[in-house]
C-alpha cells in the first residue's frame, strides 16, 4: 500500500516536472520568437530622405475584424512614407502591406493597446508594421546594409544626352551618402537624368554626387565638401551613390572609352 502511494507520488512529481520543463521550453521559444518578431528594422526611405525604424506587429483579431482597409498600389518604402507623419499625436503610425500584390493601407487611430507583439502568429498575406520613428538621413552615423555586392564596376562612363557629354562616374558605398549635404530632390525615371541634373548644378558647385533610387524613381542631389572615406565595401542597397568625377564633350566619346577602357552604364 505504501509502495503504491510512493509510486503515485513519484509519478505526480515526474508529471509536474515534465509540465514545468515543457512550459519553460515553450516560454523560452516564445521569448525567442518575440525578440525576432518585435525587433526593429532600419530602412532608408528615399521619398522622405529619412531612416525609419519599423517593427512587424500583430493586430488583435476582434479589432482587425471591425476595421476597413483601403488598399492602394505602392512600394513598401512608399507605404512607410505615406503612413508616417512627424505631427502624429501618437508618435507612431501603423500600416498594412501585402507584398504579393504590392498594396498598402494606413491604419488610422490605431491605439497601442490593440497592437500585439507576442508569439501568436497571424497568418495573413497582409502584414502589419509599426513605424516608431523616422530620422533625417544626413548625419546618420550607422551603416545597416549587410550583404556585400559582388563584382562591382566602381568606375563607369555615362552618356548624358541632355548636356551632350560623356561623364565618368564612380560608385561608392551607400552609407557614405550620410556624410554629404542635400541640395535637391527630384522624381526622375533614370540614373542618366539624375546625373544630368547634377551636372548642370555642378557648374555652380551645388552638386558633386547623386543618390539614385531606381524602384522609387527618386534622385537626391548631394554636395561634397570633403573627400569620401571609401572604407566600407559596396553593399546591396535599393539606392546607389555615385560621384560625378569629370565630363567630356560627346564627340570625344570613342577616345575616352578607348583610352580609359570604361564601360557605359
Please tell me about this protein's structure:
The chain is an alpha+beta fold and 265 residues long. It has 2 domains: 38-136, Hepatocyte Growth Factor (3-Layer(bba) Sandwich), CATH 3.50.4; 151-261, 3-Layer(bba) Sandwich (Hepatocyte Growth Factor). Helix content is 26%, strand content 32%. The strands form 2 sheets. Strands 1, 2, 3, 4, 5, 6 and 7 form a 7-stranded antiparallel sheet that branches. A 6-stranded antiparallel sheet has the order 8-9-13-11-12-10. Strand 4 and strand 5 form a beta hairpin. The N and C termini lie far apart (90 Å). The relative contact order is 0.14. Mean pLDDT is 79; it is low at 1-37.
Task: Provide a concise account of the structure shown.
The protein is α+β, with helices and mostly antiparallel strands and 265 residues long.
Question: Layout of helices and strands, plus pairs?
Answer:
Blueprint: H1 2-38, E1 40-45, E2 50-59, H2 61-64, E3 72-73, H3 76-83, E4 93-98, E5 103-107, E6 115-116, E7 126-136, E8 155-160, E9 165-172, E10 181-187, H4 191-202, E11 209-213, E12 218-223, E13 239-249, H5 253-260
Antiparallel strand pairs: 1-2, 2-6, 2-7, 3-5, 4-5, 4-7, 8-9, 9-13, 10-12, 11-12, 11-13
Amino acid at each position: 500500500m505504501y509502495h503504491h502511494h510512493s509510486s503515485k507520488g513519484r509519478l505526480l512529481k515526474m508529471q509536474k516536472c515534465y509540465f514545468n520543463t515543457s512550459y519553460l521550453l515553450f516560454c523560452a521559444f516564445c521569448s525567442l520568437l518575440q525578440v525576432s518578431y518585435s525587433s526593429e528594422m532600419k530602412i532608408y526611405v528615399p521619398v522622405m530622405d529619412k531612416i525609419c525604424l519599423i517593427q512587424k506587429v500583430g493586430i488583435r483579431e476582434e479589432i482587425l475584424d471591425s476595421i476597413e482597409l483601403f488598399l492602394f498600389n505602392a512600394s513598401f518604402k512608399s507605404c512607410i512614407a505615406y503612413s508616417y507623419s512627424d505631427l502624429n499625436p501618437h508618435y507612431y503610425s501603423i500600416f498594412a502591406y501585402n507584398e504579393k500584390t504590392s498594396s498598402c493601407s494606413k491604419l488610422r487611430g490605431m491605439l497601442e493597446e490593440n497592437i500585439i507583439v507576442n508569439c501568436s502568429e497571424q497568418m495573413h498575406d497582409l502584414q502589419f508594421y509599426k513605424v516608431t520613428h523616422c530620422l533625417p538621413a544626413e548625419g546618420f552615423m550607422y551603416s545597416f546594409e549587410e550583404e556585400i555586392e559582388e563584382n562591382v564596376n566602381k568606375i563607369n562612363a555615362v552618356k548624358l544626352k541632355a548636356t551632350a557629354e560623356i561623364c565618368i562616374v564612380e560608385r561608392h558605398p551607400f552609407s557614405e551618402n550620410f556624410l554629404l549635404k542635400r541640395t535637391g530632390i527630384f522624381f526622375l525615371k533614370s540614373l542618366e537624368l539624375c546625373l544630368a541634373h547634377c551636372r548642370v548644378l555642378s557648374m555652380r558647385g551645388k552638386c558633386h554626387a547623386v543618390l539614385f533610387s531606381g524602384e522609387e524613381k527618386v534622385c537626391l542631389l548631394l554636395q561634397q565638401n570633403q573627400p569620401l572615406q571609401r572604407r566600407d565595401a559596396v553593399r546591396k542597397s535599393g539606392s546607389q551613390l555615385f560621384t560625378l568625377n569629370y565630363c567630356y564633350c560627346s564627340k570625344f566619346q570613342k577616345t575616352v572609352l578607348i583610352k580609359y577602357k570604361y564601360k557605359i552604364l
